[in-house]
Design brief:
The complex is a heterodimer of chains A (322) and B (474). By secondary structure, chain A is mainly α. Chain A has helices at 3-35, 45-51, 54-60, 66-74, 83-96, 103-130, 138-159, 164-190, 202-214, 218-224, 230-239, 247-262, 272-285, 289-295, 297-320. The mean pLDDT of chain B is 91. Classes of the chains: A mainly alpha (322), B alpha+beta (474). Chain B: This is Circularly permuted type 2 ATP-grasp protein.
Chain lengths: 322, 474
Amino acid sequence: MLSRVAESVFWMNRYIERAENYSRFIDVNHQLSLDLNEEVPNQWLPLVHTTGDYELFAKKYSEPTPVNVIRFMTFDEENPNSIFQCLSKARENARTIRENISTSMWEVLNEFYLYVKNYRKLYMESTEEHGDTLSIDLSDFLSTVRKSCQSFYGCTDATISHDEVWNFALLGRFLERADKTTRILDMKYFILLPSVHDIGSTLDLLQWLSLLKSASAHEMYNRKYKKIDPTDIAEFLILNDTFPRSIIFCIQEMQEALEKISGLKEGLPRNSAQDATTVYLNRLRSENIKSIFDKGLHEYLDDIQIELNQIGAKIVERFFTN
Amino acid sequence: MFIADYSAKNIYDEMFSNEGFPRKSYDFVKTKMESLGGIELIKRSSSAERALMSLGITFTLYGDGGEQERIMPFDVIPRIVPSEEWISIEKGLKQRILALNLFLNDIYSERKILKDKVIPSEIIDSSTGYLKQCMGLKPPKDIWIHITGTDLVRDGAGAFHVLEDNLRCPSGVSYVLENREVMKRTFPELFEKLNIRQVYDYPYHLRSMLENLTDVSDPVIAVWTPGVYNSAYYEHSFLAQKMGVYLVEGTDLVVENHKVYMKTTKGLRKVDVIYRRIDDTFMDPSSFREDSLLGVKGIFEAYKRGNVALANAPGTGVADDKVIYSYVPKIIKYYLGEDPIIPNVPTYLCSEESDLKYVLDNIHNLVVKAANGAGGYGMIIGPKSTKQEQEDFKELIKADPRNYIAQPVLNLSTVPTLISDKIESRHVDLRPFILYGKDVYVMPGGLTRVALRKGSLVVNSSQGGGSKDTWVLG
C-alpha cells in the first residue's frame, strides 16, 4: 500500500470520527441547556475548551453564546475542526484514494458531504435573514450527521477487504476516538458549578449524565452501574475493555491494527509505533481508578493525550514518510 | 412540446432524415420517447443528474472564482450509430492506428518516410511533440500508441471524417462507462429491447493491454496522475479502481538503479508498467522540462533501459501534431499501401505559402487552430469571430505559420437534445477509444460530446460542452 494512501485513509477516518463526536457534543449540550434554568451559568464555553480550539474561538467571537459556539463548531470554515471542515477534508482525502475504497463508501461520504454543504448554506442564509437564531432544526441535522458517520463505518466494514487499507482506517478511527473520550471526560473540569455546595447536587449529576451521553455511553453504563457516580463514570470510560469508546478499548484496537499492518506473521521486525502502543496498553491494564483519582483526573487525562500524540507521531514517522 | 415539433433542416441530423422521418436505427427510441412524453423524460433526466451528483462524477474547472467542481452535463437522449456504419469506422480506426504506429517507429529510427520525401523533415523537427531524446528508442513490442482517442465528425452529407488524433493522454472514457450505467437505470426498457453493444469491459481490455507491455509475470501496474487538482483526476482514479491497480503521483515514485519504485508502507516496491496521464515533457525533469514538479527524476532512463513500460510511449505527441495530421492519409498510403477508410477534414497548412495566403484572405470562413492546441484553446472560428479578433489572429499566424492549420467550418451533425423543457438540435462529435495491445481493440461507441449552447460547434467540456451515451446497435 502506498504511504500517501495510508496517510489519507488514516485522516479520512479521523475526520469522520471527529465530525461524529462533535455532532454528539453539540447535541447533548443543546439538550442539557434546555433542561437548565436561567440561574445556571453558561454551559457552552466548556464545549469549546473541550475541543482545544478556545483561542481560535476567542479571536473570532466575542461571546460564547449558543449560536456562536454552534456556528463555530458546526459550520465555520475558518475552524479547521468544524463539522463542515471535517467533512470537506474527509471527502478530499477520499477523492485521493478512491481506487482503494468501494464505490458505496465513496457514495455515502459524497452524499454526506453534499448534505452538510447544502445545510450549511441554508443555515447561513437563515441567520442572515433572521439574525442569530436556532430556528432551524439543529437536532435533526446533528442526528443525520451521526447516522451518516455510522453508515460510513458500516459501509467500510461490509464492502472493503479487511486488509491494510482497513487497518489504517481503524487506526485513524480509534486514535481519534480515544482522544475525544479523554476530552469528554475532561469537560467536567471546565464546567464550573455555581458553588462547592453543588457537588453531588442534581445539577452536578445532570452534568455527569450529559457527559456520558456525549460519549454515547449512557445506556451501556447503566447496564453495568446502578447510579451516576463520577468515579464509576471515569472507570467506565477509561478502563472498560468491552465498551467501544473507552480509552483502553481504543488502544486495544489500535494495537491489533498495528500488529496486522506490520505483518508479524510475515516475520517482519516490530516497529516503534507498535512497541509504544503495546507498552502503553500494558500500563493501562495495570491501572485502577483509585490510583487515577489519586493522581488527579485532569492531570491523568493530560497524560493520556500526550501518550496518544506520541503514538500518532510514531505512526506518521514509520508509515507515512519515507 | 415534443419530438414531433423537432426540426433539423439543412443539416445532417443523427435521428431524422432531411424529410423529417426518423432513421431506421432510431425508430424504437423515437417511438418510446414519444410514448413516455415530455414530463416523464424530464423526470428521468433529473434523476439521472442526481445519480451523477451522488457518484461524484465531476471534473474541475479553473476560473475567476477559483477552482470549481462540476458535473459533466449529461443528456439522456442517446446518440445511435448504426452497426453498418460502425463496421467501417472500426476498420478505419484500426488502419489509422496501425499506420500511425509504424510512422512513430520510423520517425524515431530510420526516418524512411522523410528520406522518401513523403513528409518534409523540417515539419517533424519543428514539431513540439517531437522529442529528440526518443531517437533510437525501441518500445516494448514496437508499440507506441497504446491508448488513442480519435475525434470524428460528420460533414453536411453525413460522412464521417477524422477531426484530430489524440495520442498522448486522451480523456473521456470514464464518462462513457458512467454514462452507460446511468442510462441503464434511466431507460431500462430501451436496453431490454435493443441490442446495444456493451462497453463495461473496457477496463479489462485496458489492463490486459498494459500487462502485454511486460514479460514480468503478475506485474505491478500503476496509473500515474498529476494529482487531485488535474481536471481529469476523476478519470485517473476511476480507471485505477476499475482495473484494480495503483494510482500514483510523482511524489509516490522514485528511481533507484534505473528501476522505478513506489513508496509503500512496507518500503519500496518495484513498478513494472505505468499508464501515465501526464504530458511527455513533465515526466522527467532530468530528461525534459527541468521545472517539472510533477515528474520523477530518472524515469526516462529507466524506460529506455527497459526496466519500466510506459503507456503511451514518450514521443507520441509528434503524431498528433495538427500539421502532421494533414499528412495522415499519405502516411497510411506509405506504410500500408491502402487508401484511408475514414477521410481527414480538408486542411490548409499555414507553413505552405499558397495555403497561408488563402487562410489570411478567408479567415472569416475558416476554423484556424494551433498545431498543439487542445481543449478548444488557441483557435478561432471565423464566422463566429469579430473583425478585430480575426485581425489579431492573423498576426499570430503570420508570426508563427508553422504552428497553425485551417479547416473549413464543418456543419457538425446534430442530435435531438433535452434543453430545459424542450427538445432542440445540438451539434455533436464522437471520440471512440482504441487500445493497441496484442491486437487493436476499438470500444464500440465512444464519447459523444455535445455543444450545449445553441448553434455552437465547440463541444469541449472545458468550454461548456456536455455528453451523451453512444449506442452501437447490432
